[in-house]
């Protein structure tokens, strides 16, 4: 059976039951579990150091009022990071290549930051729609433009994450297919494409980490605007 390049983005199923929920909960198995020991092993120490580092980076743009969101933002960052990296393994499925899932993560969190601003400081939140010193004839157009840019933020978050991961997976599959097809006819060219595939895989690991960080960082910046 001939498979399309886009078949890798379809959610796997078993007996008609989609397995995307299992693939989304699997990264939780890699997180450290709670115990009562004073001294932990090296792996737990490394994980706790990494979580502490991520939390500091995400809380840096926020003031003390925004530190209440530390648990949500750090958990989201680690969740996206693990899913993106696990999706690079062979014969795996990456849930973050689905636009529906990314929008389901982006829209509620963006809406929460917006409602937080409207509840705590409604005048300042609505004031972002009209820059200070705007000429009177341009006021209706600027309000419309700023409102549109505000409403498309969750869409931009979801599309950015989906597009970057989808493009990387497609490039890896295209180059790996070319490497396999050229191995019997032009082995030297096949070795060259294999080297390109290796470099691209390293690049995709970096992209997986950067996109998870950018997704959560933009949410933290949206939160800072509203607190």
Could you give a quick summary of the protein structure above?
By secondary structure, this protein is mainly alpha-helical.
How many helical elements?
8
Q: Which regions contain 5 or more consecutive residues with pLDDT less than 50?
A: none
Largest β sheet strand count, sense and barrel closure: 2 strands, antiparallel
* Helical percentage: 55-70%
What is the gyration radius calculated from CA atoms?
22 Å
Structural class: mainly alpha
Q: CA-to-CA gap between the ends? A: 55 Å
Secondary-structure map with pairings?
Elements: E1 13-14, E2 17-18, H1 20-25, H2 42-59, H3 70-86, H4 99-120, H5 122-127, H6 139-151, H7 153-182, H8 187-226
Antiparallel strand pairs: 1-2
Helix pairs in contact: 2-3, 3-8, 4-7, 4-8, 7-8
